[in-house]
Design a protein that fits this description.
This protein is mainly α. It is 54% helix and 8% strand. Strands 1-2 form a two-stranded antiparallel sheet. β5 (192-194) and β6 form a beta hairpin.
Length: 335
């Protein structure tokens, strides 16, 4: 399939102007990603209910037709938009300025011309079954590399330049000769550069590099919870929730304290008496007053030669340690 060619520019002076070829790499990639599900929708709607035709059978033919259609629409888009703007003064009738919305409209218009009888039924167009079939066919085309991304990006580049009225996503500059163009390209804010973060293969325009870097999953960052670990942005959430020593936690004994996980040991040591009282109240539910339990807690802590009580970091091991110590204090064999 022949790829469409971008307009080289209008004439000025003695010859045609040469337009800067650069455009927003991420916008071009995003637009290219719209094309595959758009084609899948056309193929599914055109063959639904037909026992002898499957989406894959008509994909080659409809791909060419769709590309020709949306390219031709994009070629005349700016002129058509100006004419329509003059004819329709109401704001609600104005054409959109977002290139992605514009190309989506083109694809929807093309799709409507290829739907069979079932495809025209509104119930089908809104059904979950239709969406499932479209998703399945998109995956099939991706697995078979029916329409590789680089081929779609070449088409998306032309579409983007044709419909980007506000020149937000492509460079509008044009020059009389290659020398002046070459000078401009070295400074063009739309020129593509590779992300410097190790492992990231993304190519983005210079003007978008800060935004990309602020979200790049391969950016190495200091831990958000201020531990001494540096890690990839894509690993940050998992680190902070699972292994970060600074992740917040509540006291496992039920007191109202909150602290970083790495401070659990210090907390257990500092509030050992309070934790002992909670455990003793459970062990000795009846027959002991508050003062008696406090006195018992102090005795247990003094009798604990090996510091087992302070090392217990939740209720179960502390309860076991208390029972062992009480048994030894009474001269009974440990359970």
């Amino acid at each position: 399939m022949d790829l469409p060619v971008a307009d080289p520019g209008t004439e000025r002076g003695e010859g045609p102007l040469i337009q800067c070829p650069y455009c927003d790499s991420e916008a071009m990639h995003k637009l290219a990603q719209l094309l595959l599900p758009g084609l899948a929708a056309v193929c599914v709607d055109g063959t639904t209910g037909d026992l002898f035709r499957k989406p894959s059978v008509v994909a080659v033919e409809l791909r060419k037709e769709m590309v020709d259609y949306i390219t031709q629409r994009s070629d005349t888009f700016i002129a058509d938009a100006l004419i329509e703007s003059e004819a329709n003064q109401e704001p609600e009738n104005e054409m959109p300025e977002d290139p992605f919305e514009i190309v989506s409209i083109f694809m929807d218009d093309f799709s409507s011309t290829k739907r069979n009888i079932i495809g025209h039924v509104s119930g089908w167009l809104l059904s979950d079954n239709r969406e499932d079939k479209i998703d399945d066919f998109v995956q099939e085309m991706e697995m078979t590399r029916f329409w590789p991304l680089d081929r779609r990006e070449a088409i998306a580049e032309v579409l983007l330049k044709n419909v980007d009225i506000k020149t937000k996503f492509h460079c509008p500059e044009k020059y009389e000769n290659e020398e002046r163009l070459a000078d401009h390209k070295e400074q063009c804010s739309f020129r593509p550069v590779t992300c410097p973060n190790d492992g990231c293969r993304a190519k983005v325009s210079v003007r978008c590099m800060d935004a990309h870097d602020a979200a790049c999953p391969f950016k190495v960052l200091q831990c958000e919870q201020n531990c001494d670990k540096r890690l990839l942005r894509r690993d940050m959430d998992r680190h902070c929730v699972t292994v970060c020593p600074m992740r917040p936690m509540k006291c496992p004994f039920g007191c109202d304290s909150s602290f970083a996980e790495r401070d659990l040991e210090n907390h257990c040591l500092e509030f050992l008496q309070a934790h002992l009282l909670k455990v003793l109240k459970v062990i000795h539910k009846k027959g002991r007053s508050e003062e008696e339990l406090k006195e018992l807690a102090q005795k247990l802590e003094k009798y604990d030669e090996h510091g087992k009580l302070a090392k217990a970091q939740d209720a179960r091991p502390l309860t076991n340690a208390v029972k062992d110590l009480e048994a030894k204090m009474k001269g009974e064999p440990s359970s």
